[in-house]
Amino acid sequence: MTQTTNRTLLAAFLLLIPGGVVQAYVDPGTGSYLFQMSIAILMGGLYSVKLYWRQLVMYLTGSGGGEQERIEDETTSDLQDGVDTPNNGSDSGTAPLDSSTGSD
Length: 104
Fold this sequence. Notes:
The radius of gyration is 30 Å and the shape is elongated. It is mostly helical. The longest helix is centred in the middle third of the chain and has 24 residues, at about 30-50. It has helices spanning about 5-15, 30-50, 55-60, 65-80. The chain contains four helices and no strands.
């Protein structure tokens, strides 16, 4: 960080410190609310890390994502070959819809 940035952060921090005795009423529910908000922020942060873990690891390790592309290519080729279908493309047991019969 540059020296100007450090000075700005120090000034902002010092403004948060009260100068003298502060006589203010704090509702008893305020502590509970602050605790709830801190837990929500923590859980939201952990969930974000969970969602973007693979991208984060690839960014930090400098890998180009070749492993992910390989996995996607294998999955695509398996689906095209019919590996994921239980009957390998044979009749699924359902009758086709016939539009020639009507309720006339």
